[in-house]
Design a protein that fits this description.
This protein has 315 residues and is α/β, with parallel strands linked by helices. Helices cover 52% and strands 12% of the residues. The protein is built from 14 helices and eight strands. Strands 3-2-1-4-5-6-7-8 form an eight-stranded mixed β-sheet, with helices on both faces. Strand 7, helix 7 and strand 8 form a beta-alpha-beta unit. Helix 1 packs across helix 2 and helix 2 runs antiparallel to helix 3. 29% of the residues are buried.
């Protein structure tokens, strides 16, 4: 039971999470409602493992071994019957999650931990559908899970310290970089930071201050380059807190404070321009271009992680 994991939802995140546990030598059951979804998830998993092989992060033998520890099923009851950890990766809809957790609660052993990959929904509300709120915890992997090391372990109002600490240890054994989020707040930590930047980026674009390409370049060639090593608070330390305080006093008042998604984003969504998934968003993507961008993303980020590991170790 201790090394048995069920991952419910074989989409991009679910398949990736299954791969992380499988490489950590867990026996993983990947669950979805139909064979087509499972096959798509398996193909995604195979691609991610091959990426890791191509850049030398894992051997071909280890990748094959990891894939051998993943089995597929559409039978939720059977998948839940003997697991110590259930990882949920179904769509970001609270009602759907609550319905699923009511089922998990009945199907899993009372000792099993029920973990949600939600990127911002309330763990406390999800847990309310169960009789074991102490065993329900947020375990948010970041996309793509085979590349990004961050995992946010979030306590709901009823989550026990033992449950949270256990999942922190599990994530560490998987080679991830978990953080413990003590309060159940919308967006957790990573998305709150990310969307603060996105909100200002959309505002700058809408105001005609700079093009999408130049806004992205301002981040990747500027603060984003530093944040990958230092983060925003150490960057402030190194720049001088007096300087950051003085700038905050005049700049905060001028930063965008919209409470809803701006029209520059809503208009694209209403036009069906949803980004890479539809071939057009702020940029246009042919199938070949999307493959190139994704491959470059994974290769560069994995290379950057190698540099960080050499320079700062596991600190």
């Amino acid at each position: 039971m201790d090394n048995q994991v069920a991952v419910v939802g074989a989409g991009l995140m679910g398949a990736g999470i299954a791969g992380e546990f499988a490489r950590g030598e867990y026996e993983v059951t990947l669950v979805d409602t139909n064979e087509a979804a499972l096959e798509k998830g398996l193909n995604s998993l195979k691609k991610s493992q091959q990426t890791l092989v191509d850049v030398g992060h894992v051997s071909q033998a280890d990748a094959v071994s990891a894939l051998g520890r993943v089995r597929l099923t559409t039978d939720l009851a059977e998948a839940c019957s003997s697991v110590g950890i259930l990882m949920e990766a179904v769509p970001e809809n609270l009602a759907v999650k609550q319905e699923m957790y009511a089922q998990f609660d009945k199907l899993c052993f009372p000792e099993a931990i029920l973990a949600s990959n939600t990127s911002g929904l309330s763990i406390s509300k999800i847990a309310s559908a169960t009789q074991r709120p102490d065993k329900v915890v947020g375990v948010h992997f970041w996309n793509p899970p085979h590349v990004v090391p961050l995992v946010e372990v979030t306590k709901g109002d009823g989550t026990s310290d033992a449950t949270a600490e256990h999942m922190m240890k599990v994530c560490n054994t998987l080679g991830k970089k978990p953080i413990l989020v003590q309060h159940d707040i919308p967006g957790i930590v990573g998305n709150r930071l990310q969307y603060a930047v996105v909100r200002e980026a959309l505002h700058l674009m809408a105001e005609g201050v700079a093009s999408p390409e130049d806004i992205d370049l301002a981040m990747t060639a500027g603060p984003g380059l530093r944040y990958g090593l230092l983060g925003p608070l150490r960057t402030a330390d190194l720049g001088g807190l007096d300087v950051f305080c003085a700038i905050s006093d005049y700049l905060f008042a001028d930063l965008n404070a919209d409470k809803r998604a701006p029209s520059v984003l809503k208009d694209l969504v209403e036009q069906g321009k949803l980004g890479a998934k539809t071939g057009e968003g702020f940029y246009s993507y042919s199938e070949d271009e999307l493959d190139r961008v994704l491959a470059q993303r994974d290769r560069v980020l994995l290379g950057f992680l190698d540099v960080l590991k050499r320079e700062v170790g596991d600190e």
